[in-house]
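Two records follow; treat each independently.
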Amino acid sequence: MKEDIAGETLELALKYVDEAEVYLEKEDKIEVNVQNQKVDFAKEISSYGLGIRVINEGSMGFAHTTDLSNLEKTVENAVFNAKCNEADPNFYFTPQSKYPEVYGIYDKKIRNLDIVEAADFAKVMIQTAVEKECQATSGGVHAGYYTTEIVNSEGVYAKDTSTYFSGHISVNIPDGDGVSTAHESDTSRFKDLDPEKLSMEACQLARDSRGGKSIETADINVLLECDAAASLIFTLANAFNADNVQRGRSIFVDKIDKNVLSPTLNIYDDGTLKKGLNSSISDGEGFPSQKTVLIEDGVLKNFIYDLYTARKSKVQSTGNGMRSSYADTPSVGFSNFILDFNEGKEISEIENGLKVKDLLGAHTANPISGDFSVEIMNGFKIENGEVAYPIKKAMLSGNIFQAFTQVWAASAEAKQMGPFILPPIVVDKLRVVG
């Protein structure tokens, strides 16, 4: 980064106001896109931007820029915006703090990665699919080196550097008069993913999904693979968001220290997790990252807060003031949302059930009630503890909060999907509509 841009901007802001915060972000990334069995494009992108928040007589103002040659104009815009907004006593900036050590979030191999290496990763995925008699319909590689710097008028200085690498591929394989499809993806802080493995798993899933049979409508046990489970958990997780709680948009309002989910389940949000995809020394407003217990043996223990919602509830922030970029203000968000189970239920224990790789339409779930109705992707009938055959298109419906009162881990091996870290899970008696 250029020499002390954040500090210079803070000094400019403090000429106008007594309280200010500067957030500086730089990202160098590589994107490779796969379409129809070939690398469609590959590009390198660099972004560098700054966001500034100021508090003027209790009012918050924000402005951002990518033009670092005219910082004073950006400061003036933030001050002007503050003067146009209403005062709110819940606005404040975090004081200087000690930050935790966070490990496993930087890989110099990604920092030094070139576009040819990233394209070669994609080409290996494509070639593997061809060898497995599949068509790679789409896919891609994303890799990046990311640095943030936060300073404020309360003495905060937090600088964080991290890397990421991800690959994904979708494939088709002939299936009678049509095709069978499948998708695989993975993300890491390190350049340690295997392109052959990703492609082979996608092809195997597509192959296994051919010749699907119809399934009768019934309430049966459902084993959700990580992809499927993660798509539903977004609705569950949002009930822990303090902003939703304060607005009365969470089913967990007034339920602290009450049994709300399965006694087999513990849930944490941990921004300090080693190798976590969302781990960092601080959140997006300079508050130290931490581990927060949300559910302990099914009992609700806490919500996640940023500075604003914490002050409204007269509690301390949990370090969950997240930003999507320098062009956005912080809001309550998850770091690494971890589901940890005390008990498991293996597929061998399921006499009559369904195994589901992925779900389509989970975003349509009701965020308050938790009711959902989604399409099953790559589903397999379970009979007498074994996968019996693939099924044709079917729907899965239920209530996410009710489902998680009767849930077990299906494996000890967990995977991170976005902010969610979880194993495959088994839910008792979900409605499958054939």
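The next record belongs to a different protein.
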Amino acid sequence: MLVNKDRLALDRDVGEWLHTALNIAKIRLEPVSVEIAVASTRLPGELHPDPADRLIVATARHLGATLITDDQALLAYAAKGHLKAQAAAH
């Protein structure tokens, strides 16, 4: 959807991009478990109500992973100590 809205540029079809990304070491597709879904509704602090972002944050927190993002709202949320995140390099 972000590609269609010109908010994200990929150098290939999104399906091809995902297959390529999933072949990189340490990158995996994580299913949304019941625990992650529930956690997305109980995040600490203030975060906008976008369900996709909340699922992304809950998944990163569940895995103890660092979220790489350009989303300023998510970076601000991380700066408050609720999430490990870093700004994406360009």
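Discussion point: The CA atoms of residues 17 and 56 lie 19 Å apart. How would you locate this feature using only the token line?
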